[in-house]
Amino acid sequence: MTVQSPILTLVIPTYNERLNLEELVRRVDIALQGLVWEMVIVDDDSPDGTAEFAKSISRRDPRIRCIRRVNRRGLSGACIDGILSSSAPFVGVMDADMQHDESILPRMLEQLQSGHYDLVIGSRHLDGGSAQEGFSARRAALSLLAIKIARWALNTNVADITSGFFMLRRDIVDGVARELLPSGFKILADIIGSVKGPLRINEVGYVFRGRMAGESKLDMKVAIDFLGLIVNKVTRGLLPVRFILFAIVGLFGVGVHLAILGLLVSLPDMSFLLSQTIATVVAMTTNFFINNEFTYRDAKLRGVALLKGLLFFYAVCSLGALANVGVGTWIYHFNRVWWIGGLSGALMGSVWNYALSSILVWRRGD
Ligand SMILES: Nc1nc2c(ncn2[C@@H]2O[C@H](COP(=O)(O)OP(=O)(O)O)[C@@H](O)[C@H]2O)c(=O)[nH]1
Ligand SMILES: [Mg+2]
Asked: Which of 214, 234, 254 is the last residue of a domain?
């Protein structure tokens, strides 16, 4: 028997998609009839046993493989790992939940094979494409806003830059793999923002369907995460996404602090010192939990580690406050402009808090 190597690797990131896999494979098999293809299901250790089930499919159909990743979460990271595992000339990325229309896969592949394009995107915002069925009104509005910002920032006119359905030459990802951000959700925008030279992109419209089984994992966090990605790409990687998220959470913390302070000082018999102390502790605590949930969700602390992390976070922030006051006063000493001193101090404090809590609290180097 001669075994032909696949022309296309289809990467399917999954988290709790066991109930969708069988149907997905059936549909892809029909859509790609006559082609030599393989499917790599990249599962982040889903509690519903997706990986186990995927491997049971591989035992009867060796075109299907599964990478089970443990102690890691991240849609982009899963896609990157899947793409890097391929040796085919072309790779595609598609959801497991039947929202993406598999019947356009051969057309996408043909366009790449023709040599006219490097990247073909399944687009919901193009003639012949629609997102009505698969989107709630709020999601649709949010998605359109994100697309507008991204197109402007990345200087591209791609209609559906947040699409999770696309196909491209594998060597393009190989070239930028080290610059891609595994913690994000929007791998396509990341790839487009990371490629230095011109990229020949085409879009194929399709109707975005409702999800078959299970539920969506994307929420508000994703929108803010996406903003971080865009700032990172626009500053050419100077500002890490995590720092941007940390700073957004920090700003929110300032709001919490002021709201509580305002409330407490209005109480009778309440000293400023006590009010300020309580407001500081509450703001630090909320920031810690939001950062744990959001900024560091891939390194989320639980149980005893959560408590230890909180104590470390208090310590880091207290020293950060000292750095803030020290640097602020020092700068003020030279130029006597209160807000320059204040801003420099705040910036110093946040860089300190970010750097030290990354290393000490969540034990991350980025
Ligand atoms: N490996 C992996 N896959 C994920 C993760 N989050 C979402 N997915 C998968 O990525 C695809 C898109 O996610 P989904 O929740 O459907 O997003 P939506 O279509 O925008 O609502 C689905 O196949 C999910 O199972 C993750 O953290 N890790
Ligand atoms: Mg989906």
From this structure: 234
In this structure, the residue with its CA closest to atom 27 of ligand 1 is 74
Hunting for tokens 């001669």 — which residue is that?
2
Question: What is the model's pTM?
Answer: 0.76
- Residue ranges lining ligand 1, Cβ < 6 Å: 13-15, 17, 42-44, 73-75, 78, 95-97, 99, 164, 211, 216-218
Tokens standing for 143? 């998605």
Give me the average pLDDT of each 10-residue run along the chain (366 residues): 89 97 98 98 97 98 97 92 98 96 97 97 76 67 79 87 94 94 86 91 92 76 79 84 89 91 90 90 94 88 94 93 87 86 86 91 78
User: Where in the sequence is the domain holding 191, given as residue range(s)?
Assistant: 8-234
Residue-wise over 33-43: b if at least 16 C-beta within 10 A, else e?
eeeebbbbbbb
Which ligand minimizes its atom distance to the CA of 72? 1
Q: Which listed ligand is nearest to 95 at the C-alpha?
A: 1
